[in-house]
């Protein structure tokens, strides 16, 4: 009896062990699926709350966990549609079908008005012919990490690293992500601990280079400049140097490309962290619909551009979905310019205000159908019984006079011409008729416009503060000269004052007088261009002193905690200052903050402003 009992107990124990093992295997097998389902559930929660941006991120994460499951692709498709990005929606369907061969995805592709005319193929053997089949997405998580991670962070997250000194540069190789980090001292910051030949704690890399730049773009085979614009990474393409530059997620990126702006995995690249972590980035959502002004019908395919009113270079693009819906994620509050255009409709440019207290704003827009002007029907010939009125002739319409605008774009700190500046020229009354040109190697440019109008010229180049200029053209004017001055980006805690003027008088002079923060008296002008305090530190300097009209004359203040007065004087005392067209622009915090024009009472002297511990107080009086 005891023997039978022991046998039964042994069998029971073995059965329990087998059941436990099967359960453990099942749990282990199900854990990846559970992670995937959790990420899908997270994405669906964001969809229900209308937070499409976070939903897109969650769906992408789910797809990276399981590329063969259709749910992630279908969810990402819905998120793209609801956020107005139909072009990306159709691309993700194509990619999803190639990996899953899903009947539901295939049906959506066939029903989509923007789908390819050819039937999608799931045979991966033909991938070498699929030059651009995958969706171009920016790996924002990696870039945000680059923007804020120091030497120690990389060691913790990406494992063992190899660090070596090469001259004054510490080169760190991170094999797990095929990245090279470069650390070196700058004029203002000690980065390298010479006793250890390692970066100090808390130091970010000065530069990062990826062995495969495509790891930032979802692993596609190539990326075009147009792809960058579509995903909101708006920057600039320099066809001369064959480089594309843009800012994203707290990093400045420069990537070598061909003359059309296309780059592949082997492209040389430089990523410069600017120290902005993802937790510091506040975004604002602007969404709504674009409708036909007369019928109220939703308009699909409306091209939209949004940018801050004070920064024309920071542009985001969107296209309305089938229901007229659009969606923007904006990086700051304030006034935004929205440009709308669609074939067959009159383009519109409107300004909307994004409140700092309202992270989600809704705004609907309307467009009017463009109607070709009609000519009056010909008058019937008079009958015999009708007295013929004296013949009148319609006034002849003459073509508008063409005017050529010529000029040079110069650097405010050097007075030299700046090449490769992207200029956008359009009438101030409408942004419909835009012209795009780039300055020549010497900074010169020319463009032909219709006379009798006022034009806006937007100037943009990476490394410079974006500017907008206005020029008025007379009715019969055939030639206009407009020289433009742009200011390089500035260090934090600096104020820059740029003086420009017209052809006469030939020489206006900048004068900065006052007291530095340590009590040292200063007078920065053409006779003493560099002013220092009692410790020998530079307080202010006159970068450029122009003596042949137009300017610029540029004064930079490095010690902004003093009290200074800025004045302009006519060196030749011609008495023509009021008619000189003189203008002063003041930059602080990396942007243009004040533009002051010479007052009518100015004769030979102009008291422009006072700067008191960084506060700019406009005076603007003449004498």
Structural class: alpha+beta
Shape: globular
Whole-number count of domains: 5
Strand order of the largest sheet: 32-33-34-29-36-37
Total count of helical runs of at least 4 residues = 8
End-to-end separation: 123 Å
Helix content: 10-25%
Q: State mean pLDDT (0 to 100 scale).
A: 79
Q: What's the oligomerization state?
A: single chain
Strand content: 25-35%
Task: Work out the number of β strands.
Answer: 39
**Stretches with pLDDT under 50, minimum 5 residues:** 26-33, 113-133, 276-282, 381-388
- Main sheet characteristics: 6 strands, antiparallel
Radius of gyration: 32 Å
Tell me what you see in this structure.
- The protein is 20% helix and 34% strand.
- The strands form 10 sheets. It has a 6-stranded antiparallel beta sheet, with no helix packed on it. Strands 31-30-35-38-39 form a 5-stranded antiparallel beta sheet, with no helix packed on it.
- Helix 4 runs antiparallel to helix 5 (103-111).
- It folds into 5 domains: 24-118, Serine Threonine Protein Phosphatase 5, Tetratricopeptide repeat (Alpha Horseshoe); 140-279; 285-367, Immunoglobulins (Immunoglobulin-like); 402-485, Sandwich (Immunoglobulin-like); 490-622, Lipoxygenase-1 (Sandwich).
- The N and C termini lie far apart (123 Å).
- A hairpin with a 6-residue loop joins strand 25 and strand 26.
- Residues 26-33, 113-133, 276-282 and 381-388 have low confidence and may be disordered.
- It has 623 residues and is α+β, with helices and mostly antiparallel strands.
